[in-house]
């Protein structure tokens, strides 16, 4: 069985209860496989990055196999919200729905997208219809709107992100599909041997925690990194790691660099 989200953001939790840890989030239009069902909760596997967890059943919309195929085919043509927040307006009832950055828009054309026969209008200035070129200029233009977004464990939207949620959303604007967690993202792409060789858009991984990478950011240049730690911010990068001027201390130790 398959389902998708018609809500802006849906929490995906570690356990089938309201107070359980939020592992990640589903964005509007994201699809999932249903693994297990309880009266109130549904365990799912997200199609985009394979994350599993529990979702409040009423926040999912079941799909037939035919609907699922139609929806996933429509998403193969790239169109995504590029700014932290935009609004879709339903052509059925004129109700609005907030759409956060990285939300994919099926059947998009000229300020309109369609989800299983329901049309929505959106400001075309908020949408990119092809991946951005991955260079320093376009990276800086994309991330400037996300500065100061607060840290939220399991978050990947403009009102709260964790470090790997931030990298996943931002890199999706450049056509790069990342896995969800820093410890998974470090397995993607090719290694960059030294910081002096790093380019804008490379991923920088920091700190080991129980043998796993615990933090990730995006290289702007060999001396700067943008990452979400407390909030999204730009800080100094050197071969040892991140130095925070605010704290006047080294906060993260560089482990590896990857180019995806």
Would you write up a description of this structure?
The structure is a single chain. The protein is mainly beta. Helices cover 12% and strands 42% of the residues. Strands 17-18-19-20-21-22 form a six-stranded antiparallel beta barrel. The longest helix has 10 residues, at 65-74.
Approximate strand percentage: 35-45%
CATH level 1 name of the largest domain: Alpha Beta
**Overall number of strands:** 22
User: What CATH architecture label of the largest domain applies?
Assistant: Alpha-Beta Complex
Helix content: 10-25%
Spans where pLDDT lies below 50 across 5 or more residues? none
The total count of helices amounts to 4
CATH topology label of the largest domain: endopeptidase fold (from Nostoc punctiforme)
The CATH superfamily name of the largest domain is: endopeptidase domain like (from Nostoc punctiforme)
Major sheet strand order: 17-18-19-20-21-22
C-alpha-based Rg, rounded = 19 Å
Main sheet characteristics: 6 strands, antiparallel, barrel
- Overall outline: globular
Structural class: mainly beta
Blueprint (SSEs and pairs):
Layout: E1 2-4, E2 9-13, E3 22-27, E4 31-37, E5 41-46, E6 52-56, E7 61-63, H1 65-74, E8 80-81, E9 85-90, E10 96-100, E11 112-115, E12 118-121, E13 127-128, H2 136-143, E14 156-157, E15 160-161, H3 163-172, H4 182-185, E16 190-191, E17 203-209, E18 212-221, E19 224-229, E20 231-238, E21 241-244, E22 249-259
Antiparallel strand pairs: 1-4, 1-7, 2-3, 4-5, 5-6, 8-13, 9-10, 9-12, 11-12, 14-15, 16-22, 17-18, 17-22, 18-19, 19-20, 20-21, 21-22
